[in-house]
Design brief:
mainly beta, 39% strand, 10% helix, 5-stranded antiparallel β-sheet, 2 helices, 109 residues
């Protein structure tokens, strides 16, 4: 498999956070997120992004999600998509997001 073929297997989409709340049962500080992915519907994600973000700051924000990695239960919460980020110099997660409005569910290429 070529690197391009490997990249094309990963399905990355843009979504908008509709709801965010602390994931109190998680071992590591996390939020429960509900992300609107347009035609793919609303999906849930457990995200360890508490260092730089508050729940109220996340609502309405565009995020990039991996949508085809499978679902996983995290402390009783079904996490269906992986919200993507990169570490800053201190190792805190900085979310990836488009720099302007784009259609929800848009595929990253």
């Amino acid at each position: 498999m070529t690197p391009l073929e490997a990249f094309q297997i990963l399905d990355l989409r843009v979504g908008r956070v509709l709801r965010a709340e602390p994931h109190e049962k998680a071992r590591k500080p996390s939020y429960k997120l509900w992300v609107d992915l347009g035609p793919l519907g609303v999906k849930q994600s457990s995200a360890q992004i508490t260092d730089l973000y508050r729940p109220e700051d996340l609502v309405g924000r565009l995020v990039v999600c991996a949508v085809n990695l499978g679902a996983k239960r995290v402390a009783g919460f079904l996490s269906e998509v992986l919200v993507l980020g990169v570490p800053d110099e201190a190792g805190r997660v900085v979310l990836l997001s488009p720099d302007r409005e784009v259609p929800l569910g848009g595929k990253v290429f």
